[in-house]
Amino acid sequence: MTPVALSKFRISRLVARLNSRVEAEAKQAASELDGLFYPNYGPGPREVTAAEAQQITDTHYRAIRGSKAIEPLFKAILEGSEFARAYAATVLGAIGDIRALPLVVDALSDASPKVRLAAARGLRFFREPSTVPALIRALQDPASDVRCSAACSLGLIRSAKAVPPLIEFYERGDRDSKVAALHALGYICDPRSLPLARAALLDKVRKVRNTAKSALAQYDFKRRQESQV
Fold it and tell me: What is this structure's pTM?
């Protein structure tokens, strides 16, 4: 796939429409931007392997990073409507342009839970250890889906610093929080969380028990890999 050539003028016009008070117009602008930013956007099956799809994605975003054409999104995440800020946080995360990283981190403190959720999701694409403190703070967010998304992002970063806060998050959390924490701890595979994962096998909630099994399987896979080195 040849990376799309982006026009700053076109993107500026579409970003301006993201701020429309008419919901249908804002969503149509988002759909048109999706067609520019996401390499596999559009209907129909894609007859490519997972490796090929990843290569397409990497090539596409590598061509976009650093481009002046995406700068209107920087303004959108700072000054746009709630819809525009959330959209920008998601797309800037997917693109992974390092210039946008502090903007997405700051969006974790946005007044809107929708924007904070988009920021928590966007940060998982960067997988940048410097974002760990901000994501740990987001484990205290008033909105459950923001807290759970922050936990997932911490797991994907695989930072050992996140283990104690994730254990605490599990212990004080509801079902969804426990599931998110177990997923994250399974990705990190730190021995300190093994007792918790084993104890979770006896949880009264099936979803928690099943997630604990998956987490323990990841621990076992890592152990077998290390034993073969």
Answer: 0.90
